[in-house]
């Protein structure tokens, strides 16, 4: 293909590797942090009502106006501080595109969501990866790092560890650049950095309906930032980025917060039960404030366990760069009981 020349940055980088999506049924899927419970019945009813009475032939509102109003109401943020995206990943992409020029440094602590690295490299930026300390507290080197943009996933993925807002405030105050706090899992945590938003113009918060709202399939995300940031993001946004069914479903979901809170409580309870069971099996369990846990057996490559569970039609997440750990999404009580049973049997067979 000597007539086709790709960008050097594309040729040199590795793309993001999503969690495995099984092609056949019957799997217990605990690898991509989806919610094990269905969305609110109001979501299903709203979608059915729309499909029965409205046309899909028209473009959706380009700014997702109804969702924007509803998010403003629910989160107590003025509408002009809100941007709706096709999942939070689109919003993260937009942020990098409006702030990062080729050669600019983008800082984030690691290990974390690897999509930050991908987005940085796509834009020609330079990833500045700063290791978390052993306790996964806020790295001081990250606060002090000179960068064009900073990302913090909180609660962090893949560990589930949580940095309190008082430390996030220190990060934002000490950074001479925009700071993006990715709060995809924050509904499972004790508190959000949202109260800091109006005090710091360089703070950007990103949320999603994929996790706590059980809407990963609809792809809806929120970005909260100063209106000056929103205006520049709108220049880079695709014209009709959120489809009409996603907009209808998102509004209905935000109208039923009690349902969401009940599911969050169930997942938290199951998370604590499962964590205790894994500790009893000899794993180190990172303290999680998300809808998943990271478990570790120091010095033991857990690929065998990942493969054996997959053979039994249970999917968990294995990271080759962190071979003695597995990230496990929290499923239903029955699913987690089944997983504990399988893991105990497989460890006994392997004499681990």
UniProtKB/TrEMBL annotation:
A Pfam family this chain is assigned to: Aminotran_1_2
EC number: 2.6.1.9
InterPro entries from the UniProt entry: Aminotrans_II_pyridoxalP_BS, Aminotransferase_I/II_large, HisP_aminotrans, PyrdxlP-dep_Trfase, PyrdxlP-dep_Trfase_major, PyrdxlP-dep_Trfase_small
A GO BP entry: L-histidine biosynthetic process
Protein family (similarity comment): Belongs to the class-II pyridoxal-phosphate-dependent aminotransferase family. Histidinol-phosphate aminotransferase subfamily.
Associated pathway: Amino-acid biosynthesis; L-histidine biosynthesis; L-histidine from 5-phospho-alpha-D-ribose 1-diphosphate: step 7/9
Cofactor(s) annotated in UniProt: pyridoxal 5'-phosphate
Keyword Amino-acid biosynthesis in annotation: yes
A GO MF term: histidinol-phosphate transaminase activity
Record-given protein name: Histidinol-phosphate aminotransferase
Record's keyword terms, sorted: Amino-acid biosynthesis, Aminotransferase, Histidine biosynthesis, Pyridoxal phosphate, Transferase
HAMAP family with a match to the protein in the record: HisC_aminotrans_2 (MF_01023)
Catalytic activity: L-histidinol phosphate + 2-oxoglutarate = 3-(imidazol-4-yl)-2-oxopropyl phosphate + L-glutamate
Keyword Transport: no
Assembly, per entry: Homodimer.
Modified residues (N6-(pyridoxal phosphate)lysine): 211
Domain Aminotransferase class I/classII large residues, every copy: 28-343
